[in-house]
């Protein structure tokens, strides 16, 4: 047992044990301090919290249901499975919870311009949406490869009035998009707030994003207590940067009977550059502002990654997850592309729900775990987003007979 209760972290320097912190160029230290101070003031300001609750309810559509997946439960023959339906949020994923929190903060700080990075495009869409809603200028950085594989989301962002900048450097995916966003931020500090999309990056982003996403777990906890009169036995969530998972896990950290399972992208299998499972073959390092588990070679060069889901395709994992893993409070595993695709089709056919490919990784792990659990056990799977954005990509890989 750790001497520090997990729920009191990070410490004042933004560390979760040896992870986290603030590793940025000098020019970003001051704006990050300013953001930290303003965020903690807002967090304790009832007026800010009231405004946030108002928009989460009236605009995002919260609370999201905790839905009993009856046919999936029957098919797997074990634990009773509930789905936390973040796919039903406005714009189709959990990303909007954080984007809404951060734009209200930006407004409070007098900023007029929003920038964001995006992988699958969901965070870009969420940021473009809240920027449109509050009349702010918005620029989204997106890897050129991701622009291609998530073309639909590029159009959505443009329709919402955002400028989408394709990034052609390096592997042309999320990591390069973050670099460009940071470069923009340094040159436009006065006018611009950077809405980072996951529980990653320099302090205060990991703690701030977690706190904006904890509404997932706060709701799920109240909902399961209402429906079942007891806590669940297990929570499962996919882990990209880690925001939907930490959002679900955080309110349960002190409930030691609740098992927490994070699912990373196993891609084509655990071989160098074929996956994005940082806890399988990753090592301690610093990337894009924080210290965590990173996929890197023996010279500290960041390795390329692969996943069928753009949203999980990133070489580093949020620092709080690294800490929870060391503390053995959460367990991390992976699902391969094939497992995710199978789970994607299964959920569609059994429950009438087309999940995001990212979320399908969590469903895949549920398909492994639930049959081994007793029928009295309760399992909550975080359905982080809907799969509309992935339809074309899945159609490419899963051949369905089409009407002639
Ligand atoms: C972005 C995204 C993820 C991965 O990001 P986390 O920060 O790990 O939650 C997972 N699911 C969906 C639907 C996403 O859009």
Overview of this protein structure:
The radius of gyration is 20 Å and the shape is globular. Helix 4 packs parallel to helix 5. 42% of the residues lie in helices and 19% in strands. It has 15 helices and 14 strands. The mean pLDDT is 96. Strand 1 (15-16) and strand 2 (19-23) form a beta hairpin. The protein folds into two domains: 15-56 and 95-209, Rossmann fold (3-Layer(aba) Sandwich); 63-92 and 214-397, Rossmann fold (3-Layer(aba) Sandwich). It is of the alpha/beta class and 404 residues long. The chain has a six-stranded mixed β-sheet with strand order 3-4-14-9-10-13, with helices on both faces. A four-stranded antiparallel β-sheet has the order 1-2-12-11. The structure holds pyridoxal-5'-phosphate.
For the CA atoms, what is the radius of gyration?
20 Å
Spatial gap, N to C terminus: 62 Å
Q: What sequence of helices (H) and strands (E) makes up the elements?
A: EEHHEHEHEHEHHEHEHHEHEEEHEHHEH
Tally of discrete structural domains: 2
Number of distinct helices: 15
- Global structural class: alpha/beta
Strand order of the largest sheet: 3-4-14-9-10-13
What is the number of E strands? Answer: 14
Anisotropy-based shape? globular
Sequence stretches where pLDDT stays below 50 over 5 or more residues: none
The amount of beta strand, in percent, is 15-25%
Mean pLDDT: 96
Major sheet size, sense and barrel closure: 6 strands, mixed
CATH class of the largest domain: Alpha Beta
Distinct small molecules bound, one entry per kind? pyridoxal-5'-phosphate
Helix content: 40-55%
CATH topology of the largest domain: Rossmann fold
* CATH second-level architecture of the largest domain: 3-Layer(aba) Sandwich
């Amino acid at each position: 047992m750790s001497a520090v209760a997990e729920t009191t972290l990070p410490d004042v320097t933004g560390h979760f044990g040896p992870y986290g912190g603030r590793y940025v160029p000098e020019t970003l230290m001051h704006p990050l301090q300013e953001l930290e101070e303003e965020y903690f003031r807002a967090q304790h300001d009832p007026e800010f919290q009231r405004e946030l609750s108002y928009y989460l309810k009236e605009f995002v559509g919260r609370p999201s249901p905790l839905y009993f997946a009856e046919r999936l439960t029957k098919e797997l023959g074990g634990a009773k499975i509930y789905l936390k339906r973040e796919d039903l949020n406005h714009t189709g994923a959990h990303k909007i919870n954080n984007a809404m929190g951060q734009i209200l903060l930006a407004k409070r700080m007098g900023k007029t311009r929003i920038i964001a990075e995006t992988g699958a495009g969901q965070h870009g869409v969420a940021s473009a949406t809240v920027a449109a809603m509050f009349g702010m200028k918005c620029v989204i950085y997106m890897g050129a490869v991701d622009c291609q594989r998530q073309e639909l989301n590029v159009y959505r962002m443009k329709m919402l009035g955002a400028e989408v900048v394709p990034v052609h450097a390096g592997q042309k995916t999320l990591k390069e998009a973050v670099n460009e966003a940071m470069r923009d931020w340094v040159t436009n500090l006065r006018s611009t707030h950077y809405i980072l999309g996951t529980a990653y990056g320099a302090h205060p982003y990991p703690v701030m994003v977690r706190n904006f996403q904890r509404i997932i777990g706060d709701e799920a906890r109240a909902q399961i207590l209402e429906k079942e009169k007891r806590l669940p036995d297990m929570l499962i969530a996919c882990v990209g940067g880690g925001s939907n998972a930490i959002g679900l896990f955080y309110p349960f950290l002190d409930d030691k009977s609740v098992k927490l399972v994070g699912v990373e992208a196993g891609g084509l299998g655990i071989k160098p550059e074929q996956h994005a499972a940082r806890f399988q073959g990753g090592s301690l390092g610093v990337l894009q502002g924080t210290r965590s588990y990173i996929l890197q070679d023996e010279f500290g060069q960041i390795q390329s990654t692969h996943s069928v889901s753009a949203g999980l395709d990133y070489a580093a994992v949020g620092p709080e997850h690294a800490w929870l893993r060391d503390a053995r409070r959460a367990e991390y595993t992976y699902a391969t592309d094939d497992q995710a695709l199978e789970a994607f089709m299964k959920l569609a056919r059994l429950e009438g729900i087309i999940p995001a490919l990212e979320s399908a990784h969590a469903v895949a792990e549920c398909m492994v775990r639930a049959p081994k659990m007793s029928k009295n056990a309760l399992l909550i799977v975080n359905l982080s987003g809907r799969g509309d954005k992935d339809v074309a990509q899945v159609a490419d890989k899963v051949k369905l007979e089409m009407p002639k």
